[in-house]
Amino acid sequence: MKLARRTLLRRTLQGRRRVWIAGPGRWVVGALLPIAPGLVIATTPAAQVIPGFLFLVAVVAATVIGGRGPGLLATVVATGALVAAVELSTKPLPQDQTNEWVWAGVFLALTVLAVAWVDNLLGDAARRATAVLDPLVEAAPVGIALFDRDLRFVRVNAALARLSRLSPSAHLGRTLADVIPDVPPELTEQLRSVLTVGTVLRHQLLSVTTPAGTSRQLMVDAFPVRLSGGPSGSITGIGAVVADITERNRLEQLERETSQLQVTAQLSHRLLESQRIAQLAGFEVSVAGQRTIWSEELCALMGRTEPPVTDEDFRAHVHPDEFERLTSVYLRALSTGGPFTVETRMIRTDGSVREILVHGEAVRAGNDPDAEVIGLWGVVQDVTEAKVTKDELFATQGELSAAQGELSATQGELVAAQRDIAEARAEAKAERRVLELFQRAMLPKELPDVPGGALRAEYLAVADRIDVGGDWYDAFALPDGRIALSIGDVVGHDQQAAAIMGQVRAINRGYALEQPDPGAVLTRLNRLLILGYPSGTLVSAVTGLYDPGTGVLQWANAGHPYPLLASPPVPGACPQVSVLESSDPILGAASTRVYTTRTLTLPEDGTLLWYTDGLIERRYADLEVGQDKLATLLAQIVASPTPVSADAVIEGVTSGMVAAGALEDDVCVLALQRRADSS
């Protein structure tokens, strides 16, 4: 306030003044008030009056420039100077006016009143200016700070305090490096350049780590603050505007990821079409599980609607005369790890025999050529139409030449088919690598830190399946410190379901950033699925919004398996595991559905568990049975007298459910905990 007293005084005098006396009496005061000074002037020699008024003007000027303290100091100095001037005056004074101490007392009283009036006037002006500016600065959605010439904080608004996780008062008097230890030295030098040269710093990017351990991307603009406000005034400090662009960068990254997922899905579709046109079918054999996986094309070739489940089902399609030979080829490929090609006969479900050409190679545990062989994979082609039996070939001597020509043509076609198979094998291998990359790109690389708690998630894929599932989980921090959570599953197990999953996850995140209410997010997502996706696209999901400071969780469920909430164990009693039931339908089923937002408070040392249906779903068993097993298992895990970590919870429930029955589908699991010391 002191730096702008002259400007504030000028603006105050031009504006509306405070009225101390109301009514007609103010006109009487205005007329009679000058009479007292007039009597003093009339009865006092000019040698005393004129210096007194000059000193009074000097005192007012000192108050305007320096404030009340310097004004009072100027009052004392002026009074002493006035007494000295009267004492040294050579003009004789009347006997009744020679008491300069009486005159000094009157002058001292007048100057003190002048100092108080002027300082109050300046204070009122400064307070009115601050009352106008403070709401604007505090309501600004971006961080605003004022630094002095030593680059120490003088003023910080609420938005900047939220970014640094420190109160505004904790910033005052501290440097930027004290508040943000990892601030780059280059930024400090640029701010000093603003002080010395007066340049404006625009759009300087800054990556910092908050005291909570989260990484934020900031954009800083800085400008010089001058005393007079003009371009030639002296620089008294620096004003800075800090914008948090972390979520904007995340949205841009999500858009790039969505574009990559769309390209990958198109590539996968083209690879499948290439197999269909070439009449190729894929297979994979897992050594550990002793299971054989057939593609849809191979199932159709053998007249089946689904792959064989047991060894007996598989052996029913192998010609009895070919079983020992195929077993020998299989064992040799596993032992040597080299590629193989074999021509054999297989039996369809209708009893017909087909001539099959098989190309395969070993699957190793890693990229190392000497890594352990864990299975086989390859492609098959039906060459029945290209085969000519010996009886037909040598039916008559007269047809021998023609048969030989046909045989040569058939051999040429066989060579061409083998070349096509080799090319298709290379394409299939590239497809497999793309699918692996596709699957890894679906889920977030890291989860946000939860103050006063813990958040962990895990994705478990069925190892012996070659397609890509539609399960996902997601979690990210909002600008206000709350955590947005989601978990879900796209109905289906193919490239289209996986592509839709990637898009739905990205869209769900965008909706949560714009309007984080869980029920509103699911309502908008349901409407988008019905209007913008093929008919029959169904997605189950749970979304949530967690406040680490209060432990309050808002959540909504769209046809997804019910979450479980485990309370901390009480001495002498078993832990309570609650099933959070809901009745809202799956996404994509009803266009006018409005999803309900529910609210609960996580108990201290409590654990919230979200999961997809692959964790509890088993063939020939109801979901309720699997859910009861999971609830019992969770109660046993949290029954420990000491708090159990979120990692231990996920490890315990996944290993326990796998022990109860092998996984038949991909699984996502998410655990959220609140610690007892979080308050």
- Shape descriptor reads elongated
The number of helical runs is 20
* Secondary structure: helix percent: 40-55%
Largest sheet: 5 strands, antiparallel
Terminal-residue CA separation: 39 Å
Rg from alpha-carbon coordinates? 42 Å
Quaternary structure classification: single chain
CATH topology of the largest domain: Phosphatase 2c, domain 1
Main structural class: alpha+beta
How many strand elements?
A: 20
> How many domain units?
4
Low-confidence stretches: 1-21, 92-98
Within CATH, the superfamily of the largest domain carries the name PPM-type phosphatase domain
What is the level-2 CATH architecture name of the largest domain? 4-Layer Sandwich
Which sequence of strands runs across the widest sheet?
A: 2-1-5-4-3
Summarize model confidence as the mean pLDDT.
Answer: 77
- Beta-strand residue percentage: 15-25%
CATH class membership of the largest domain = Alpha Beta
InterPro entries: Bact_Sigma-Reg (IPR052016), PAC (IPR001610), PAS (IPR000014), PAS-assoc_C (IPR000700), PAS-like_dom_sf (IPR035965), PAS_4 (IPR013656), PAS_fold_3 (IPR013655), PPM-type-like_dom_sf (IPR036457)
Protein name: PAS domain S-box-containing protein
GO molecular function, one term: phosphatase activity
Keywords: Coiled coil, Hydrolase, Membrane, Transmembrane, Transmembrane helix
